[in-house]
Design a protein that fits this description.
5-stranded parallel sheet, 4-stranded antiparallel sheet, Rossmann fold, 22% strand, Arc Repressor Mutant, subunit A, homodimer, DNA-binding, alpha/beta, 8 helices, elongated, 228 residues
Chain lengths: 228, 228
DNA sequence: GGGATGTATCAAAAAAACATCAAAAAAAAC
DNA sequence: GTTTTTTTTGATGTTTTTTTGATACATCCC
């Protein structure tokens, strides 16, 4: 998340944009630029950046207005840069919905730290991703598999296999696809592995492994996980 | 939410606490006070304030340590007040987990605006200070571990390991994740450390270390703390 | 029906991963 | 500056998982 985060720089002076771009890209961020308030709102809607660095002195509109306009529909963190150091300016910007306010000239280190802080704030609580098919339940965020609520212990490879099937639930995965994804490209001819591992997996998650209901064999092609 | 929000003021100078109290109470906040770092952590656990205003210059401990200690178990917003204006101080404080940093002397209006901003960022969530799993109890605010009520002494690393597992209770943590968080990114290949330390930890908290019930090994993947 | 191909299952051998003990080195406490 | 605690390193035995091999079953096509 922190690596490669998208940042939109909004400033009318090209040399400041360039300076920020170089510094931030050196720290692994992915940079977009906008020169006007209008452009900032447009690009935010278009690119959905993870963070916005907004200069207050824009030619076409007041920085405050830009923040207010943005806050009408997005909570993307906004860090204000401004030459104005008065209390009132800071209060107005923060109350308009900005997340932080830095006075020029500012230290790049401090900006970087405040970007990290803003990103922490933006993090939504991670929702749990659970796949369900009949009696089978797979909590992908916890790496926990249950059958009728009973926890099932899977080995690393068994779990990798199941997860791959879940990611393509309903679709047929060919032998080669499975072998390449789970074991690696050099294993694509080891079809015997599939026999052994699907048997093991079925033993653990199917009610009657001889009449599988969750993992279906497509003879001559591959395997498929039934989506319920 | 904003009205009547509880704020904990941490400063060793009574006159500053008094000044802040009067100003903030005039704005409808409910104020609590602490004079030391130790007291700050205690009162935070006790009173569960909505926000903490923390002076960096405390007599008993470094302000940074206080922030780090707090961040071990709570996300309550922390606004730092400090006489020190260097970049490094700001970066350190923010990276330790502080939400904002104001240099003394500061404007009351700005502080007020930054309090409002911090409150917007606050995610309302009931954090558990005491984690329980079977016979194990861990008071995260006091760093006290007990098993059947009996205090258990853990080394710094053992505790860091246990705390990491608790923060992700129920989830599988991979070897790399654990090594990176506890020892640092340069240790991600030292899987042997995990063997040694998990053995030690189990020796101390498991009834029968050979048949662990709290810390489960997921072979080839990592470890998981069972949530009861 | 009968061979050919593809599949399922069981069980062993081999490999990898893990637990544990203990000594050496480093760090912390006194 | 010495003692104590903690961390790091090394060696050894155990468990778990993966790989390999053997065998049986099913289905398709001739």
């Amino acid at each position: 998340m922190a690596e490669g985060a998208q940042i939109l720089i909004v400033d009318d002076e090209p040399q400041i944009r360039r300076f920020l771009r170089i510094s931030l890209e050196a720290n692994g961020y992915c940079i977009h630029e906008a020169a006007t308030g209008h452009d900032a709102i447009l690009k935010t809607a278009q690119l959905r950046p993870d963070l916005i660095i907004l200069d207050m002195g824009l030619p076409d509109s007041d920085g405050l207005d830009v923040v207010r306009r943005l806050r009408e529909w997005t909570k993307t963190p906004v860090i204000i840069l401004s030459v104005r150091d008065s209390d009132q300016d800071k209060v107005d910007a923060l109350d308009a919905g900005a997340d932080d306010y830095l006075t020029k000239p500012f230290s790049m280190d401090e900006l970087m730290a405040r970007i990290r802080t803003a990103q922490r704030h933006a993090q939504p609580q991670q929702e749990e991703i659970v796949f369900t098919s009949g009696r089978l339940k797979v909590d992908l965020s916890r790496r926990v598999v249950t059958i009728n609520g009973e926890p099932v212990k899977l080995t690393r490879t068994e779990y990798a296999l199941l997860r791959l099937l879940i990611q393509h639930a309903g679709k047929v995965l060919t032998h080669q696809q499975i072998l390449r994804e789970v074991w690696g490209p050099e294993y694509i001819h080891e079809t015997h592995y599939l026999r052994v591992y699907f048997a093991q997996l079925r033993q653990k998650i199917e009610e009657n492994p001889a009449l599988p209901e969750i993992i279906i064999t497509e003879p001559g092609v591959g395997y498929r996980l039934v989506r319920v």
